Amino acid sequence: MTEKIKNPILPGFNPDPSIVRVKDDYYIATSTFEWFPGVAIHHSKDLINWELIGYALTSKKHINMTGNPNSGGVWAPCLTYCDELFYLIFSDAKTIKGPYKDVHNYLTTATNIKGPWSEPIYLNSSGFDPSLFHDDDGRKWLLNMRWNHRFGDARRFGGIIIQEYDPKAKKLIGPIETIFTGSKEIGKTEGAHIYKHNGYYYLMTAEGGTGYSHAVTLARSKNLKGPYEIHPDNPILTSKDKPNLELQRAGHASLVETQNGQWYIVHLCSRPVMPQKRCVLGRETAIQKAKWNSDGWLRLETGGNDPLISVPSPGLPSCPFKPEPARDDFDSTKLSLHFNTLRIPADESWLSLKERPGWLRLYGRESLGSKHAQSLIARKLTSLNCTAQTCVEFEPEIFQQAAGLVLLYDTQNYYYLKITHDENIGRCINVCFSQNDNYAELEPIPFGLEHKLCHLKAEVDYDKLYFSYSLDETQWHKFDKTFDITTLSDEFCNEGSFTGAFAGLCVQDLTGQKTKADFDYFEYKEKSRT
Is residue 354 a contact partner of residue 393, using CB atoms and an 8 Å limit? Predict the structure, then answer.
């Protein structure tokens, strides 16, 4: 019996998947937005088991996101392989609200998927969701949606444009042409990829916006530049108007053929917390099995267009990966791949795993509201039934200094269990929280000077968040207040709409003295994947 693939294959914030196969290896690149490093890359050999193997944009020479808006930064990468070279197209979104989109598109290449990746080549800024198509005559073509700031709503999506890319000159050449304006029924056409199969060019696009009306549209033409006819049963994949489906917001897809001739679509999806209908885990990556029918059109193998939780695997040899340890004791001199930073890379000016071996040392910098220089590392939440825990040693001298455990979505939305200082009671433990910049704090709890270390814990139970602390990791003291974790979601947050919830460690020092905090470990445990 063929083993099943369980969706989502990349749980947690892993949107806009672009999949490519190189011989027996499969790679998926996903968007990372304002989180650094940029463009997460996962690897599989069987389409069932996936492992994070690295990132493409690992330094400021690849991307500088200092000051980028929430949900800006790296949008919708496209990963392809041709001429024994990996090609990665990506966007850097600088302006995302209002009529304008300042989104700059780049190309970087590597001979090895783990890098090093070349310094990016600037391509254009006419729109977002760029992709690269390698035709079988050797020519290469850049696609992207064109943004039209003159109009409102769906009319701003000005169609899919194409222009030739010259790999020798390392620039775009020739005319810019519109090849597809989308389906009238859905609209908001973006996320374009072209595939050539049996003499046709197949254009796969995302439509309907990346919310609950999201969909995958397929069109085809005998000519690269069209005209394109739309699939007779379009959309080929969607969750729209199907509230009982576990996978919602299905769309933004890419296609891959296995080495044994089977076809799969990877796509983004979300699993909302109900009844709030908020997606705390963000937009995740799922996979569906597809087949080519006798009429030359691609359809889901099971019929219909519903995204399924359980999907037949291609029957390739099983290749599980060693699971990520739940506890990181910071014994390595390198930060785990599962940690990300905000907008800028980690460097020794604010983070060290060497100064106190076995500990992570962070030097306090700007506030949780900063889009420039935060001292923060965090990992994605991948379950709504999980705990995050740490142990911190910190000696604040003023209320402007704090360190601790944070759960956050963006600079306006977070829950922070922190050690800080109060003028009346001295060193203390407190919880502060922000909901679309509506900030509040609980009453501080004194933290005696005789205790150097404090253990901090966050527990997520579906739609609820609890905080507790311990001075000996045995006796835990739980805060009375229950928090609403669903505020850390696309649907709630005013500025963002594209990322997901993270748990992490951070330090602030608003005096500018860069006071240090030492963390003994970080532990993330899931009780279930849902």
Answer: no
* Domain count along the chain: 2
Distance of CA 396 to the CA centre of its chain: 34
Q: Which two tokens stand for residue 32?
A: 């990372």
**Are 333 and 432 part of one and the same domain?**
yes
pLDDT digits (tens, 9 = 90+) for 298-349: 999 999 999 999 999 999 999 999 999 999 999 999 999 999 999 999 999 9
* Cis? peptide before 77, omega within 30° of 0: no
Residue 82 sits at φ, ψ, to 5 deg, of: -160, 145
CATH number at residue 351: 2.60.120.200
Q: For the chain, percent helix, then strand, then coil, each to nearest 5?
A: 0, 50, 50
Task: Evaluate whether 18 touches 287 at the Cβ level (below 8 Å).
Answer: no
Q: Does residue 331 share a domain with residue 234?
A: no
Listed as own residue / partner, the contacts of 206-211 with beta carbons closer than 8 Å and 24 or more positions apart are: 206/129, 206/251, 206/252, 206/253, 207/182, 207/183, 207/235, 207/251, 208/235, 208/238, 208/240, 208/251, 210/15, 210/249, 210/251, 210/252, 210/268, 210/283, 210/497, 210/498, 211/249, 211/490, 211/497
What mean pLDDT is predicted for residues 91-119? Answer: 97
Identify whether 1 is part of a domain.
no
User: For residue 1, what pLDDT is reported?
Assistant: 56
Express each pLDDT in 13-48 by its tens digit. Answer: 999 999 999 999 999 999 999 999 999 999 999 999
Sign of the torsion angle spanned by Cα atoms 408, 411, 417, 418: positive
Torsion angle, CA of 13/16/21/22, rounded to 10 degrees? -80
- What are the tens digits of pLDDT across the range 477-506? 999 999 999 999 999 999 878 999 999 999
- DSSP annotation of 5: E
Please state, in angstroms and as integers, the Cα–Cα distance from residue 46 to each residue in 21, 50, 55, 315, 530, following that order: 11, 8, 21, 8, 22
Q: Give the distance between the most distant pair of CA atoms in the chain.
A: 78
Please give the backbone phi and psi of residue 80, each rounded to the nearest 5 degrees, phi first: -135, 170
How many Cα atoms sit within 13 Å of 148 on the Cβ side? 17
3-class DSSP assignment, residue 237: strand
- From first CA to last CA, the distance across the chain in angstroms is 26
What is the pTM assigned to this prediction? 0.96
Q: Provide the domain limits for residue 149.
A: 13-238
Quote the CA–CA distance of 36 and 406 in Å, as a whole number: 17
Examine residue 282 and state whether it is found in any structural domain, yes or no: no
Q: Residue 212 belongs to a domain with what CATH number?
A: 2.115.10.20
Say whether 485 sits in a helix, a strand or coil. Answer: helix
Residue 252, domain member (yes or no): no
Q: Once rounded to an integer, what is the mean pLDDT over residues 88-116?
A: 97
List active site positions: 16, 190
